[in-house]
Amino acid sequence: MARGGYATVYRATQDSVGRDVAIKMENRTLDNARDQARFLREARAAGRMSSHPHVVDLFDVGVTVDQHPYLIMELCDGSYLDRMRVAPLNAVEARDVGIKIADALVHSHANGVLHRDVKPANILYSEFNAAVLADFGLAVLGEMRDSSVTLEVLTPAYAPPEMFRHDTPSGAADVYALCATLYAVMSGRPPRWATNRSPSLLTLMDLFHQPIPDLPSAPRALTDVLRYGMNNDPASRPTAEELRDLLNNLHLDPSTPQPPPTVYRSTSTSTNHVPPPRPRPIPPSTPTLDETPTVQHAPGRKGFFQKWFGG
């Protein structure tokens, strides 16, 4: 069992088919029509995505008698938040995780669904799958362009500057969050953080003006791709598909024979496709971060900023 600020996850056995599952029981209650409609939308979004091999399988959803929503999901062994705290990934491992999760985002965005909370804690692994994207709890259907999610439910350590301004959601935010996540699982902490301690809100906003440091353990080519994806300007980031292909084409160790790149089919034929911003070419060196985000404070739960590191 694992308990967090917003939900408790139980390990259980589904007797009808004899398999172990995870039951995520949310702490909130659905005591009004708006919350119930949002939960159903989130559940449908998660169910739609779970057919992808790198998205956690969702088996069922429901509401308890005391109005707590729950999801019955694939049971995984751990998260990359746990992994990075114990043994950060090397460049090849991080690249391979990035390819898988970027492809899951390609599928998600092509079906009109934005994740909006990509972070190490939401990338899980199991004996049979090296990386699966979990928790579409903040997912929003692209055609609805719901921008009502406030700071209280974000993870600022991996959020791009536009999310602090409540800009219209786009797939570019997921790209930023994935690149920040890949940087973190190699460095052991989020980008630009000097220590494991959570910075204040003012310090966090100042960090967007600072360059993203090189990683001694990662080739410059990989770091440049991640910087490209973490550009402060959403229109200057790659799409999820372009990020996946950039990572897929990285040859990180020229002395070792590389397998041929995996060929991915396009999923952009869906009528719900999220139109991505068009990026500029990847910069040859560290970009200058020059956008000043304006923070819009929103009513939040006490202790929210204690969760920035990724939980």
TrEMBL record:
Q: Does the keyword Transmembrane helix apply?
A: no
Pfam families referenced in this protein's UniProt entry, alphabetically: Pkinase
Instruction: State if Cytoplasm is listed as a keyword.
Output: no
- Which UniProt keywords are listed? ATP-binding, Kinase, Nucleotide-binding, Serine/threonine-protein kinase, Transferase
Which GO molecular function, any one, fits this protein according to its record? Answer: protein serine/threonine kinase activity
* Region described as Disordered: spans on this chain: 250-301
Enzyme class, UniProt record, top EC level: transferase
Q: Which CDD domains match?
A: STKc_PknB_like
Known EC number: 2.7.11.1
What positions does the domain Protein kinase occupy? 1-252
Q: Pro residues compositional bias: what residue ranges? A: 274-286
Q: Where is the composition biased (Polar residues)?
A: 264-273
Q: Which InterPro entries match?
A: Kinase-like_dom_sf, Prot_kinase_dom, Ser/Thr_kinase_AS
Protein name per Swiss-Prot or TrEMBL: non-specific serine/threonine protein kinase
Task: State the taxonomy lineage.
Answer: Bacteria, Bacillati, Actinomycetota, Actinomycetes, Micromonosporales
